[in-house]
Amino acid sequence: MGGVHQTNSSPVLVTGATGRVGRVVVDRLLDAGVPVRALVRRPDAAATLPSAVEVFTGDLTVPETLDPALKGAGAVFLVWTAPPATAEAVVERLAAHVRRAVFLSSPHQTPHPFFQQPNPMGVLHADIERLLAATALETTIIRPGMFASNALAWWAPALRNGDVVRWPYGAAESAPVDDRDIAAVAARTLREDGHVGGDYVLTGPESLTQAAQLDVIGDALGRRIAYEELTPDEFRALWEGVAPSSAVDMLLAAWHAAVGRPAYRTTTVADLLGTPPRSLRQWAVDHAAAFARRT
Questions:
Q1: Which of 13, 90, 235, 262 has the greatest number of CB atoms lying within 10 Å of its CB?
Q2: What are phi and psi of 44, to 5 degrees?
Q3: What are phi and psi of 208, to 5 degrees?
């Protein structure tokens, strides 16, 4: 963005620093010369972080443990991975110590049926956004749509075993966004002025049915992926005990609502980064090893 002032002097605290987005945010900030602090619940989790990162042990469910990490920091990347009870106390601590907060939220306000189904996570995100808005923090909200990396949890196990992918609502469309694009936007808004009040919905470039997404991944892997449609009840039975029933019901409702509707897409990644968002094919090529058949 033209005329944007970069502020690189104060450390940025990254929560969720070992997660799929936070870990890349760490790298992007270091690449830009920004000092990085990482909040981890367990010290051993820091083993995957670069040596330049200053590691602090803390827990969002115990707000006072954040104080050492926040003291002297200029900004925080907030990824909420805890129950909601301590959100208010955590946001109060952020406001007392730092100037800027970038919150990884979700597109719960987006006027598309995929994002308008009952969603406990969306309710939590909305509550945290209200808490942030009530402070003097310079806040930016980042709202990624469907993560491309969901394919790792959803489909990679079957593909590693060479099995058929059995899944519901193959005709439901979404626009998977690459985690690396999400992280690049987050890092930019953390280190540059000009994003106060920013509310950024991030999507990938293409609206693809789930069946088409499997075709794209198969093409990237050089193999044909067999797909078998499941009913919602069959899917619930398959995932019982694997994922919370509320999360399964939310996904089923979202997919059902998305059938026959092109996915909601934005140009925000390109607008902010100056480069087009990565395609699902590019993501799949770069993550092909995670889908490789076990020998």
A1: 13
A2: -65, -20
A3: -130, 135
